[in-house]
Design brief:
- β1, α1 (about 30-50) and β2 (about 55-60) form a beta-alpha-beta unit.
- The longest helix is centred in the N-terminal third of the chain and has 21 residues, at about 30-50.
- The relative contact order is 0.22.
- By secondary structure, this protein is of the alpha/beta class.
- It has one domain (about 5-125): 3-Layer(aba) Sandwich (Rossmann fold).
- About 35% of the residues lie in helices and about 15% in strands.
- A three-stranded parallel beta sheet has the order 1-2-3, with helices on both faces.
């Protein structure tokens, strides 16, 4: 499509858009700070690359099955806690992320630029 921009899609975390939830021995200050930095980098790159017809956006996923969450989601109690803490009562699915990436990389997302799209079922709204 004429004028269809190139795309950059960064991946951060919903922890980069919300306040730290705990401050005890499990606090993840460096993790949440680094995820916030990816979001800010996305905004900066958006400003720097827009003149070159390149859009830059970031996806901030919540809990999905992954290397990081495999120990939590391995137990029934861990799965239950993850599901109960989410407004949609579930963790993310691969299709949730795929749909978001497809949108951002398709003509439908050609005018989306500098956006942070949180894909966490609404968990970031609950502190």
């Amino acid at each position: 499509v004429e004028g269809d921009p190139a795309r950059v899609v960064n991946i951060s975390s919903s922890d980069g858009v919300r306040a730290q939830q705990s401050y005890g021995p499990t606090a993840a200050f460096s993790y949440t700070t680094s995820k916030g930095a990816v979001i800010h980098l996305t905004k900066t790159l958006c400003r720097a690359l827009s003149d070159r017809n390149i859009t830059v956006n970031v996806i901030a996923p919540g809990v999905f099955p992954s290397q990081m969450t495999k120990y939590i989601l391995k137990s029934e109690r861990g799965k239950q806690m993850a599901n109960e803490s989410n407004p949609l009562k579930r963790v993310g699915r691969t299709s949730d992320m795929v749909g978001t990436v497809l949108y951002l990389c398709s003509i439908a997302g050609a005018y989306t630029n500098g956006a942070t799209i949180v894909v966490d079922g609404g968990s970031h709204l609950h502190i």
